[in-house]
Amino acid sequence: MSRPRLSASGDSTGRASRIALVPILRVLLLIAPWVFIAYLFRDVDAAVNAFRDASPAPMIAALLLMMLVLVVMAWLWTRLISHFSRELGAADRVLLLKAFARSWLARYLPGKLWAYGARVIHTESSGVPTRLVASGLVAETALVVGTTTALGLGLWLWSIAGPAAGLTVLAIAWLALVLAVSRLGWLTALALRLLSNILSRRWEDTARRLQEDDPSLNLGASAAFAGGYLLNNLIGAVAFVFVVLSLGDLDWSDLPLVMGGYSLAAVIGIVAIFAPAGLGVREAVLAGFLTPVVASPVAVSIAFLIRALTVLADVLFLGSVEIVALAARGQRKDRAAGDAGPEPVPTPSNRPPA
Questions:
Q1: Residue 214 gets which letter from DSSP?
Q2: How far apart are CA 269 and CA 271, in angstroms?
Q3: Among 123, 114, 115, 41, CA closest to 82
Q4: What's the rounded Cα separation, in Å, for the pair 276 and 97?
Q5: Among 48, 52, 56, 49, which Cα is nearest to 246's?
Q6: CA atoms within 13 A on the CB side of 271
Q7: How much is the pLDDT for 147?
Q8: Between 255-271 and 281-290, two packed helices, what is the crossing angle to 10 degrees?
Q9: What is the pLDDT of residue 59?
Q10: In whole angstroms, how far apart are CA 318 and each of 62, 103, 123?
Q11: Taking the model in full, what pTM does it have?
């Protein structure tokens, strides 16, 4: 017996109902982080009291380390694109730094996808082909998520089963990431094809061109970038330790749990693409990891403080990059004026007629 076919009107009605659900789901996903925040700050008085004896010196150290993490991430991004496109000059690298800094704030718009789209738009101004930008984004995402996950799992297992087990898992996860990143070409093409169904037709054309010219990282470059991102994530975890120390005491034995919990919370915040910069989601996970170490109100205060310092570091980083870009532009103009030479002095032979 043949199955009945849907009529055109029935199919269009079903499509319309699905489209109508999209705005509702979007609103729910945007509200979800604020629900998390409301739950975390249900005891506001106790959370505020934790700031009375706060120490500013560890906060300043944490802020400086967080800005260092952003600088290193931006530099690694420029190195990724330079590895794929070897013809980039110093001026192009400055444009890539600006693209990273401006797109970094786009994750508050909300979600990580906005940051990726902004990165593509800003990077195209430097003349880098879209397929290379897409390859860099896929490689960067794999490196950031992979190294952060490896660090978080390794340190978390360290706190449970000891350093031997934790470091073994960390090393195995890092090696697996290096091998995976060295074979990212086909994954980039797949990601671009998925984007072609969501964004625009040009992504499908980019995926087709990417299959013809695969700009993957080799094994050595994959190991170098994986090592750089792993070290940078470790610096970020140390910055979080300073945030914890600014509001309370911390035993050395709790360091692996605190740093591992911060790394795993960062991964979950990245994966939660519906939340603006992981807002609310990361705080909930951090509070859960910190509750066994410090009191619950202090854990909530620490989660709030790390978010405030993160936003401040993002803004200061963008301002610093813009200042550097303006200074570089002024140097290029002065150099161009110097190459052109001084203006000729009017003489009777070259003075224009009255």
A1: -
A2: 6
A3: 123
A4: 22
A5: 56
A6: 11
A7: 95
A8: 160
A9: 93
A10: 18, 10, 15
A11: 0.77
